[in-house]
Design goal:
- It is built from 26 helices and 59 strands.
- By secondary structure, the protein is α+β, with helices and mostly antiparallel strands.
- Among the domains are: 166 residues, Jelly Rolls (Sandwich); 342 residues, Kelch-type beta propeller (Neuraminidase); 138 residues, Chitobiase, domain 2 (2-Layer Sandwich); 154 residues.
- The strands form 13 sheets. An 8-stranded parallel beta barrel has the order 50-51-52-55-56-57-58-59, surrounded by 5 helices.
- Helix 6 links the parallel strand 50 and strand 51.
- Helix 21 packs antiparallel against helix 22.
- The radius of gyration is 35 Å and the shape is globular.
- The N and C termini lie far apart (74 Å).
Length: 1149
């Protein structure tokens, strides 16, 4: 019976899918040899327990076979990212407990920490006779031997609490857990460390102000830490040593939460006490109260997943509850006759085990709320522990914890500790030790199985269990008498579910043999392809009236599906017989693709809901409609589907990240309209033809729709890019400062000087037109009409005045506001153009001194007013902040919007004339601005790039612009996560930390009373304080050093040539920032002290500037040099400063 498994791909969803086969005689394997062979696939980042591969086990009889993949958690931590394989058999056999020694001779508390890492068991301790004994981690070497792995960190934290394996490394969290002393003692906040080997640990930052960091989890590629008591919350790692709150819980009230344990389960991260909360990656939600106990006393500890249910232990009655979903829990009994607090839960060889206070007791769950006691490590004859909340202090000190349970080397390990963790309260006797036992026989692979496809063979041969991975022997059990283990049961065979959890991953070619296999046979199975039997075919159908863009959209979908899934994908005009394979119907509404037989039904309401460029995605699991409104609708639908449902991302031009998948969920029903009508870039600087093509491709993939060029550039570039533009249905916006192009001074000034500006009493053709004289309108408009007819792809023509000033001073021009005069003229021109070329609109520029809205003239419907921010607003902070002329900009823009629903904004987030190639990502600013623009009714905007090929300097906020222009409700976290993960892969965390350090440089206040932004953006130190020079220099250098160290971390993490090249230029850029600050500081200091030693320092700095790649290769307009030379000249004199001009530093082109 198939319970929801995708048989075409072998995908098990981890939530309820499994395959069941009824018990037959052939599955009764008895006491003889057998072998289980299976291909299994797991993702690199998981958000669930991996779960059971094979289950042929009867829990009531404690008999049968188990094969599972999991990462055990020894105490309060969640499962790690390493994947251990456990293969076991049982026939109700329980072995004796073995003493595995004491990790620390001077400590009575093995923390809730036991973790298996790279084939070894690790345990941490808390407290000790001396502070030199605090915060230590030990590695088990067998028998009763332990190796000290060093003291973790410094400061006054008593111990190391949870340990976890995260993305291939072992992490430790320091804590002070003694609740009787933590608030009164002088203890430091807990920190996170990464194990470097030997006795070395690297600090990874301080997540919060909490002394007691109880728990740690790895969830969707990030570390999370929870604790208190200072701030009850969960904190997430954002960089190598950077943390931020994921959530802060209330300390009071009916739904308070002091995080003590964590678990990853069913695609969520859980934490607790006294209530349980769950995090889906976006928000934390309440998940209930596990048991009905006094809320003032209820505490929750240690999670484990058993039979597909998340279980949690509780204080003060030692009960365990199993999660039923929503806010519902079921009590499944008390651990121990007088158990009070389970600190360890684990599933081992088919059974759930729990360990509890006050007798350090281990119990086995035998169903129906029954827990069978297996061992009390502390239970003197006649001893009766005090009752919680009634016991005396001395009675409490005698209690002994069972601090953790985990699986290693095929055995169940248990650790113990005193009640308070202090050696002042209890002796180092049974407290602070580790023990182990066997139940049945288990072969465990204790290293990381790794993601992707792996071949497993679990085999019983003679007196051993053997576990093979990818054809190689990886683990064996201890010896046993074969006659002791008859594994036959009456239970069904289950594939993908058992005593742990539903399998989260994929399987292929599962086989069960009633014999052992030879090594050659095992290796032969491991050499087969796991996906050979599940390769899919898919079809793409286009409509009878498919356009050029529709067909391009189909080929893009074909290409990406093939790359992501390895599918064989065909394109046709008619739907094939489905035979269970996916069929995609792709096209604009006008293509009539929805009329093709077999196409999913898209409701009239959904179609009516679509605006221009909007998309509808409709899928029933096999057939999918990807349709949109307008020329670009189908392509937008395809790219939206690929991004949101396949996981394809395009972080930068020329950079496409396609994940490798094994299946797709095609149950889709969504409609999306873009936030803005106009979404594009303005490209006005030097750029290669190839990079122009990359930008065009990037625009379409991120659902932007326009690109602006000057007429002069477009005339040269058009033959090289037109095909790419037409394939993608983009709308070129051509013109900009085009007065000279369409009504040139050379052609018209000799004939009609009165058509041109009167400046200082003389008519001149060198600047502007006389815009109050409409006699030039007819010829001007005719020239534009001829151009548009020759360029039918153009949708908007920019008829801006010439750049700068020089406007007419005649009486008619001066009689009205500049805006009214210009708008009246452009209305006349646009009306004539519209009469001949109704498809095209005219763009009017609101710029420099004519940003004020018109007083009398109203823009026509086919005229697009574009409000230009330029220097009038602060580009490093949202327009809603009260900085620079932001308030004036808001008033003017809002007035423009009131006068025209076509009003747009011309933005300068990526203008290197202003920003001078100094990398300072502002995705938060872009998102905030676009949300404001949407709120007031702006129709869209264009982002100016004066040096497009230096995209690296603006990539994060350009990506934010693209994502938010399409969907302004997207969160900043989602934008950053998508950008850094897709752009940098394993270097993502380091590059995120680099960005944070860069923002600290610009936002930080330095010794001269200015922020880094104020100094670097203006190239000026306004108020130099000699007594603060050194401290400010050290502060600035420290931040730059941190930026460069993060780049070094990223370089170590990545092997991608594209990423490494980008890291190199960003490192040069960071060095440039340091040099700029040094020159500014030396020049400002020279004005104060006239110290000639500064001259040599400036010469040395300028020499370094001359060797910097950003200056030499990127800044072809010499904006950086032009800004530095006045400062250099003020110290060295103009003659010497002239040596540092472009010719001296960069040879003539």
């Amino acid at each position: 019976m198939n319970h929801g498994v995708d048989l075409a791909t072998g995908a098990f969803d981890g939530l309820g899918a499994y395959i069941e086969a009824p018990n037959t005689e052939s599955l009764k394997l008895g006491a003889g040899d057998f072998a289980i062979s299976a291909w299994v696939h797991t993702e690199e980042q998981v958000d669930d327990v991996i779960g059971d591969v094979i289950d042929m086990y009867d829990p009531a009889a404690r008999r049968g076979i188990t094969l599972s993949i999991n990462s055990t958690a020894g105490g309060f931590q969640s499962q790690g990212t390493d994947r251990h394989v456990y293969f076991g058999i049982d026939d109700a056999k329980t072995g004796e407990w073995q003493d595995c020694g004491r990790p620390s001779a001077s400590c009575n508390y093995v923390s809730e920490s036991m973790t298996v890492f790279k084939g070894k068991l690790y345990a941490a301790t808390t407290g000790g006779t001396n502070e030199s004994d605090w915060r230590r981690v030990y590695r088990y070497d067998g028998g009763q031997s332990w190796t000290d792995c060093g003291q973790v960190g410094d400061g006054r934290a008593q111990g190391v609490g949870p340990l976890i394996v995260h993305n291939g490394d072992l992490y430790a969290v320091t804590w002070t857990v003694d609740w009787t002393r933590v608030k009164s003692g002088d203890y430091d906040a807990g920190r996170v460390y990464r194990y470097l080997g030997g006795t070395q640990w690297e600090e990874c930052g301080q997540p919060s102000d909490n002394c007691t960091l109880n728990c740690i989890a790895s969830f969707r590629g990030k570390l999370y830490v929870g604790g208190g008591p200072e701030t009850w919350g969960v904190f997430t790692q954002e960089g190598p040593d950077q943390w931020k709150p994921s959530t802060i819980f209330p300390k009071e009230g009916p739904r308070r939460c002091f995080p003590h344990s964590m678990a990853v389960f069913n695609r969520k991260l859980f934490t607790c006490y006294p209530f349980v909360y769950a995090f889906d990656g976006h928000e934390w939600t309440y998940a209930g109260r596990p048991v009905a106990a006094n809320l003032d006393r209820l505490q929750l500890y240690c999670f484990a997943v058993h039979q597909g249910k998340l279980c949690v232990g509780t204080w003060p009655e030692g009960r365990v509850a199993a999660y039923q979903g929503g806010e519902d829990w079921q009590d499944i009994g008390r651990v121990g006759e007088d158990g009070t607090e389970p600190n360890g839960l684990v599933v081992y060889n088919g059974k759930l085990y729990g360990g509890t206070l006050p007798r350090a007791e281990v119990c086995r769950y035998d169903g129906d709320s029954r827990w069978t006691s297996l061992r009390r490590f502390y239970s003197p004859d006649g001893w009766k522990p005090g009752v919680p909340y009634e016991a005396t202090s001395e009675e409490v000190k005698e209690w002994v914890r069972l601090t953790g349970l985990t699986i290693y080397d095929g055995k169940l390990f248990a650790s113990t500790g005193s009640c308070t963790s202090s050696v002042d309260d209890a002796p180092c006797d049974v407290r602070g030790k580790v023990f182990a036992m066997e139940a049945g026989k288990v072969a465990s692979y204790d290293d990381d199985l790794g993601p992707g496809w792996k071949h497993l063979v679990a085999m019983r041969e003679g007196d051993r269990l053997k576990l093979f991975i990818d054809g190689k022997l990886a683990a064996t059990s201890s010896a046993f008498d074969p006659s002791d283990f008859d594994v036959s049961t009456d239970k069904s065979l289950r594939i993908g579910f058992g005593q742990t959890d539903f399998f989260a991953g994929k399987m292929s070619d599962v086989r069960i043999y009633n014999r052992a296999l030879t090594t050659a046979a095992i290796q032969s199975l491991a050499k087969r392809s796991p996906t050979a039997a599940i390769t899919k075919h898919a079809s793409i159908v286009v409509g009878a009236h498919a356009s050029r863009v529709d067909r391009f959209a189909a080929t893009e979908l074909q290409r990406c599906l093939t790359a992501a899934l390895g599918w064989n994908v065909s394109i046709s005009d008619a739907a094939p017989s489905t035979d269970g394979q996916p069929v995609f119907f792709v096209g604009s509404l006008d293509s009539e693709v929805l009329s093709v037989p077999g196409a999913p039904a898209v409701s009239e309401e959904q179609i009516a809901e679509l605006r221009e460029d909007g998309v509808s995605l409709k899928g029933d699991g096999e057939t999918v409609a990807l349709v949109g409104k307008g020329t670009r609708g189908s392509l937008n639908a395809v790219y939206h589907f690929l991004e949101q449902h396949v996981g394809v991302h395009w972080p930068e031009p020329g950079n496409e990240r396609i994940p490798r998948l094994d299946s797709l969920r095609l149950e889709i029903d969504e409609v999306h309209n873009p936030t803005f009508c106009y979404r594009g870039v303005a490209l006005h600087g030097p750029c290669s033809d190839e990079f122009h093509r990359r930008i065009i491709d990037w625009l379409a993939k991120n659902r932007l729709n326009s690109l602006q060029f000057s007429c002069e550039i477009y005339d040269k570039l058009r033959p090289k890019i037109l095909g790419a533009v037409l394939d993608r249905g983009l709308s070129p916006k051509i013109g900009a400062h085009s007065r000279q192009y369409f009504y040139s001074s050379e052609a018209y000034f000799p004939l009609h000087p009165e058509h041109f500006s009167l400046v200082n009493g003389k008519r001149t053709g060198a600047t502007q037109l006389c815009y109050s004289n409409h006699a030039s309108v007819a010829a001007y408009a005719d020239n534009v009409v001829d151009y548009l007819n020759a360029h039918p792809e153009i949708s908007v023509v920019g008829l801006w005045p010439s750049d700068g000033y020089g406007f007419c001073e005649c009486e008619r021009c001066k009689a009205g506001s500049t805006t009214d005069v210009l708008l009246d003229y452009l209305n006349d021109v646009s009306e004539r153009i519209h009469a001949h070329v109704p498809r095209a609109k005219v763009e009017f520029l609101s710029y420099i001194h004519y940003t004020a809205p018109p007083e009398k003239v109203k823009p026509l419907p086919y005229l697009v007013p574009t409000y230009c921010e330029y220097h009038s607003r602060n580009q490093f902070h949202p327009i809603t902040e009260e900085r620079a002329s932001n308030a004036k900009c808001r008033r003017e823009l809002e007035s423009w919007v009131q006068q025209s629903n076509q009003a747009t904004v011309y933005s300068y987030y990526a203008d290197d004339v202003i920003k001078k190639f100094l990398y300072n990502p502002v995705p938060d600013v872009v998102l905030a601005d676009l949300r404001y623009y949407q709120g007031i009714g702006v129709a869209g905007n264009s982002v100016l790039m004066m040096n497009p090929q230096s995209w690296w300097a603006h990539a994060p906020h350009m990506y934010a612009y693209a994502r938010a222009a399409w969907n302004s409700s997207i969160t900043l976290n989602a934008i950053n996560d998508d950008y850094f993960t897709s752009m940098y892969g394993p270097a993502a965390d380091a590059m995120r930390a680099h960005q944070q350090a860069t923002r600290e440089l610009f936002d930080g206040q330095f010794g001269h009373g200015q922020t880094g932004e104020e100094m670097l953006s203006a190239f000026r130190i306004k108020r130099f304080h000699l007594d603060q020079e050194e401290s400010s220099r050290m502060q600035f250098a420290g931040v730059v050093d941190r930026m460069r160290r993060r780049l070094g971390d990223a370089q170590t993490a990545s092997s991608d040539p594209y990423v490494l090249e980008k890291i190199a230029i960003l490192d040069q850029d960071a060095d440039l920032m340091a040099m700029i600050y040094g020159i500014l500081s030396e020049a400002a200091g020279y004005k104060v002290d006239k110290n000639d030693a500064r001259k040599d320092r400036i010469r040395a700095l300028m020499a370094r500037v001359g060797a910097n790649d950003v200056v030499v290769k990127e800044d072809v307009r010499c904006n950086i040099l032009k800004s530095l030379l006045p400062h250099v000249s003020s110290v060295l004199g103009s003659d010497e400063a002239a040596r540092y001009d472009r010719v001296a530093i960069m040879p003539p082109e």
